[in-house]
Amino acid sequence: MTTLATRRTSRVANIATWVVQVVVGLMFVGGGMAKLFGDPTMVDLFDEIGAGDWLRYFVGACEVAGGIGLMIPWLCGLAAAALSALVVGAIVTNVAVVDENPALPIVYLVVLAAITWRRRDRLTPRGLMPRGLMPRGLMPRGLMPRR
């Protein structure tokens, strides 16, 4: 492959990843808002789990924050990784407590893992902070930007 073809493929993959991130982010924001605003389906689900309203509010807040984080360039890798952990909890809950099919959370996990992999460069201290915000003294020696 030529350099131009490689660059074009990389650009298309980056755009596709951003489209997936925005769609998944909006889905998590919507699901989180349903939990936070007390949608009856969500209230019944969390009553069945038996953990009480605190877990519904916590999961809802995490979903909203993670969904928004997926749409912020310097946070998207960390948001995808954190939402992956949340979805693992949903899979375990679906199998062990609620006795529902875990297919949908597994699909979310695969998509979030792919986003985490594509945005893995944003999981380093340099990738987590917008340019110029991290003080030079706090950055690990091997990650300090070259002048």
TrEMBL record:
It is found in: Membrane. Keywords: Membrane, Transmembrane, Transmembrane helix. It is a multi-pass membrane protein. GO terms for cellular component: membrane. It comes from the Bacteria. Its main location: membrane. This is DoxX-like family protein.
